[in-house]
Automatic annotation (TrEMBL):
Gene3D superfamilies membership: Immunoglobulins
Lineage of the species this protein comes from: unclassified sequences, metagenomes, ecological metagenomes
Cellular component, GO annotation: membrane
Protein name listed in UniProt: Unannotated protein
Pfam families reported in the protein's UniProt record: He_PIG (PF05345)
Species, as recorded: freshwater metagenome
Region annotation Disordered: where it falls in the sequence: 37-59
MF term (GO), any: calcium ion binding
Amino acid sequence: MTFERLRRPMISAGLLCAAIAAVGLATPSAAFELAPTPKGAAGHQGDKVKHPPRKGVASKYSTTAKGTGLLSYHGGTNGVGVTTGPPKVVLVFWGSQWGTKSVDAGTGISTFTNDPMGVAPLLQRFFKGLGTNNETWSGVMTELCEGVAYGATVCPANVPHVGYPTGGALAGVIYDGATAAPTTASDAQIAAVAVKAATTAGNTTPASNRNTQYVVLSSTGLHPGGFNAPLNWCAWHDWTNGGSVGPLAYTNLPYLTDVGYSCGANYVNGGTAGLVDGVTMVEGHEYAETITDQFPGGGWWDAAGYENSDKCAWVGAGGVGGSQNITLATGSFAVQGNFSNVTNGCAISAVPFNSNVTTVTFSATSGNQIGTVGTPVSTSVAASSSDATQAITYSATGLPVGLSIGSASGEIAGTPTVAVWNSPVVVKATDATGSSSTTSFTWTVNNVGGNTVVVAPLASRTSAKGKSLSLANSATDNQSLQNLSWSATGLPTGLSISGTTGAISGTPSAGGTFTVSVRATDLSSAYGFTSFTWYIASVSVTNPGAKTSTRNVSLSLQIVASDTAPSAIIKYAASNLPSGLTINVNTGLISGKPTSRQTKAVKVTATDNFGATATASFSWTIA
């Protein structure tokens, strides 16, 4: 693979001012340039640092990093070498092409109607999750520092190291969508969007931008900075001397899924989920390079000009330094490894530099608890930080009503007032840096005298034989979180009850009167029941047998039907009656005067108001 880092000429103040005007930002009184003037041919000082596209298939991880030798420090630019505070990321969605923005009230995640691959919520979750779940991917970057001599390859403990993003790196989401972004935006226009975003975010001083980077995201189908025209890179990071807001770092991030495989699709994960692998891999690459070479040229890179992420780009998947998934509090994300001077190779994980992060562990936990309503209880948990000077604060979820935890002591105490079965309790211990750990157990509070289960009563009912049905049951238990099991006796033939839901279903296969009892039993063996009468309607018709009658002589024939349901109402019908005869729908009486000689195969049908039906067939000769 060829890694090409192209040197660009310095952009003039006039060009940048025009770009700023194009994106709607007032031109500052003092002209400024996008990057320092290139200083000589060696290295990359003054360069825009590009992420190379992928070539070839994803191999298994190779221990061979790219470039030449270790990373070394290059003295800083404008007094800045690395991001020394907790890194902060502002995502800037540029151009009305993103569509309509909406914000989830529960998560605070912004989404856009023209974001077919979900890039916006993906990157927000990624940066929200960095520095959570005791993640150690960020730890590799904290090995690097500033405050050391030019050319140094080692960072002592007493100098400022790269900060750890405790509790998340996402500092804001900005939609710069009043107008459309250019189809092919210039570098100067992209830089101007970053400066405008800093003003929008309220970061209007150099100090407020010291540890902040701005990621300018373009919508699908665009070519910011010449992206994919042709495809020579996937993204790049740079810096701009932003006038009154001070120098700031920014990234040009195109809609990477437009080029699929070439910028990382399915590099780590297969299927649909892996189509966005490259989004977090490439942006994670630019983020890691920005915090270790904040204003490109003054931070850490090797003798061949490779930054920490460059040395480990597309080196394969898995292993100690290849691309793979990391798990954060906000989900699982594909990232690449970064070069570590400590191990002299690519690394996916390292213990964060201890001045930036601590670990919290529980030294005493509480097992599963059982108590009784109205009886006071007390139990304790204890935790400590790897930094013994850090105070621990405790919190808990799932405690039974009436109990609380001491935020400083870890003691759980009180008098439970409501019964609960196996309430899942999670206790969290957090130190002053935001590092935390949790322990879990269950807590049962029993009722005095046991539980009471009440099954909702059911009235007597009638259903039809041969018709499928379903009948729901419900019950209450005065101990919350209980599970009920259901049973029944006396059910009509063909019906059964679900042991988990209490629903009775099936198709009755026999008529009759049934006395049904439904019972619900909880995990403490407490139970309740209800009983009702269930009539299954079944109609039968008495066959009158073959009949012979005389033409033009009045006659009547009573059809007799019966029903097993006491409240049944039977209606009658007949087909193929001899000419001149009719049947009374309510009484079943066939009457009239036959008008012609004939023999008919007659069929009579009796149907009740529940849908049960029966028939009888016989021959009728008119002589």
